[in-house]
Amino acid sequence: MAMISPSRRLRRTPFSEGVDRANPKAFTVYNRMLLATVFESVEADYHHLKNHVQVWDVAVERQVELRGPDAGRLMQMLTPRDLRGMLPGQCYYVPIVDETGGMLNDPVALKLAEDRWWISIADSDLLFWVKGLAHGYRLDVLVDEPDISPLAVQGPKAEELMVRVFGEAVRAIKFFRFSWFEFEGRWLVIARSGYSKQGGFEIYVDGADMGMPLWDALFKAGEDLDVRAGCPNGIERIEGGLLSYGNDMTRDNTPHECGLGRFCSTQTAIGCVGRDALLRVAKEGPVQQIRPITIEGDLPPCDRAWPLMAGTKRVGQVTSAAKSPDYGVNVAIGMVRMTHWDAGTVLAVRTQDGDFEATVHEEFWQ
Amino acid sequence: MAMISPSRRLRRTPFSEGVDRANPKAFTVYNRMLLATVFESVEADYHHLKNHVQVWDVAVERQVELRGPDAGRLMQMLTPRDLRGMLPGQCYYVPIVDETGGMLNDPVALKLAEDRWWISIADSDLLFWVKGLAHGYRLDVLVDEPDISPLAVQGPKAEELMVRVFGEAVRAIKFFRFSWFEFEGRWLVIARSGYSKQGGFEIYVDGADMGMPLWDALFKAGEDLDVRAGCPNGIERIEGGLLSYGNDMTRDNTPHECGLGRFCSTQTAIGCVGRDALLRVAKEGPVQQIRPITIEGDLPPCDRAWPLMAGTKRVGQVTSAAKSPDYGVNVAIGMVRMTHWDAGTVLAVRTQDGDFEATVHEEFWQ
After folding, report:
1. What are chain A's domains?
2. Based on CB atoms within 10 Å of each CB, which residue in A23, A157, B186, B193 is the most buried?
3. pLDDT score for A1
C-alpha cells in the first residue's frame, strides 16, 4: 500500500474527528472524500462487524436532492426501475443508466415526498448527469448536493444501539423504509439499510454541525456493546454479493450484465432515458454477467481488473477478491462471458503475480 | 499521512508500471485514478523540476471527446470563453460553468477539427454534465471518454528531451498549440502546455498499449539529462498561481471569484448555459476573489479549508499552502472577501494546529 497525500480536494467529513480518534490504518477516496477502509485489520473488523455493532462514517454517500414539481419525472428518467408504486418513506435500490443503458451509478433513492427525493450515491458525480438532464429538458426542479451526511450503524447489535439513542420506535422501521427521528432538536431521516449483510441503519445527518454530537452519543450509549468505528468491509461485502460501482461495474456495463435485471422494468419504466437501449438488452439477454467466483492460492491485492482465461481466450475478469476467514477460501466477484458462466466452470485468473485457479460459483456466500 | 487501500476503482494508468519503478512515496486520487505526488521528497522534486526535466504520468487528465456536427455548439454551451476565433491546433484554458455560473471544472480544450474536440479535465466527472446536456438538448454529437492518456514532459530541459524522441519539429510548437507527431507508427497529439511554470509539453497518448514504449523511449533518450519521473509539484504550482479544482475552487465559485474573469466573454459567448448568471456577476464584480497569501510559521498539511479571520470575523479561506524553498516563506492560495483583499492586509489563518499570521500578497511568485 502507498501513502495518500493530504489535500482539501480529498474532503474530510462531519465525522472525520471521530474516525481519526479510532486510528484507521488505511483510507480510500470515494466521491472525492476520505473513506476509512481498515481499523484493527480487515479480518478483525470483519469478525467484529459480524458479532457486534459498528458506526460507519459513510458521508461519502453524498446526496443528490431533487425538489420541485418535476422531481418524480426526473427521477424516473434516471432509472429503468419502475417507480410508480413507490411511496414516501421507501428506499429503492436504483440502477442509473445513460442513454445507451450504461451504468452511471447504483445508488439508493429515498422518496421524501411526491416532489422531493434524495439519491444516496455510489462513486461517480451523478449530480452532473442529473443537472445536465434537468437543464437540457428544462424541467421544473432544483438539483443540488445538500449538507446531508449518512452515518451507518451496522451489525447484529445495531438495533439495540439505535434504540438506546432514538427510542423504541426504531424497531418499527422495516427494511428499506425510513422514518423521521428527533436528535437534539433536529429531525433526521433514519432508514433500515446499509452496505453490509449484518443488518443495521443509515442515519441521514442533516447539517455538518450535528455530526460529532451524534457520533459521540452513539459511542457513549454503546460502550457495553463493544461499539467500534468501522467501515464497509472488503471481505463481508464480497461474501454478500454487494457490488461496488467502479470496481465490479462501470459505464461499460448494463444493469443486466450486473445481475440487476430484476430492477429493470423496461416495459413500464416510461421516461427512462436508457429505456430503448435496455429493451434491446432485455430481449436478447446479456452476453456476460456478474458471477461469484472462488480462487485458490495466495493472492495479491486486487488493484486492477484480472483477466479470466479459458486457455488463451479471455472470457471475463475478476474485479474484487478477498480471503474469507469464515468460508476458508478466496471469495471474488467477476464478469464472465456466457460461454463460461455456468457454476463449476474452472478458469485461470491472471493477476500481477501470475495465474491462479478460479471456479465459477452458483451463489454468493451469505 | 495515511495509507491508501488498493482497489480497481482507483484506476491504474498506462504508465503505472513506469511510475511504480520510480518508487513514489505518495499518491493522490484524481478522477478516480492514481496520481503520484512525491518521488524523492516534495522539495527535492521541486528543485529537480526547476533545473532538469521530468516525465509526469498525468493520465488522470481524462479526455472528454465531442465529435459530430454539434460539437462546436456544445463546446460553447460549456464555457463563457468566446471560442469563435479558436482554430484547429489550438488549446484554450476554459472555465466550465453550470447554469448558475458555478465552476464544474477548469480544463484545457483542444480543437482537433471543426467537429472534434478534446477536453482535458480537472478533477470532476465533466463527462456526465456534457452527456446530460447533449442528451437533453438532443444535440447531434457523440460524447465519450476515449483511450487517451496525457504524459507530460516538464522542466527547462523538456524541449531538448522531446527533440531527441520526436525530432526538431517539436521546437516549432507554440505555447498552447499542438501538432501531430509519429511515434512507432502511431500519430500522437503533442501540445506545448502543462501544469507547471517551467515549460514543457503534454503528449496525448492514444492507446494504452503505447504508454510504456513511450515512457521507456523518453527515459532512454534523457539519461544524460537526468530525466526523472515526476508529478505536479505542490510548491511550484502554488508559487506559479496555478489553481487546483477541488482545492482552490469548487462549484460554489464563479470564474470571476477564481480570478478567471479574463476568460469570460459573457457579452459574446452566446450559447453558454451559465451566461445569464455570469452577465450579472460581470456587472457587479465578485465579492470575494482568489489571492496569493503568505503565512508565517510551521504549518500543518493543508488538508481542509482554513478560515481567514479578521478578528472574530471570517473573511475568507486558505485552500492550498506549502513552504517555498526558493522564496523562504509559506506560499498559499486563498479566497478573500473584498473588504480584506487588498495587498498587505494582515489576517489570521485558522488551522487544525491553531492560528498563524497571513498576509495578502499582490502577485503570485513566478
Report:
1. 16-61+147-238 (3.30.1360.120), 63-144 (3.30.70.1400), 287-366 (2.40.30.110)
2. B193
3. 64
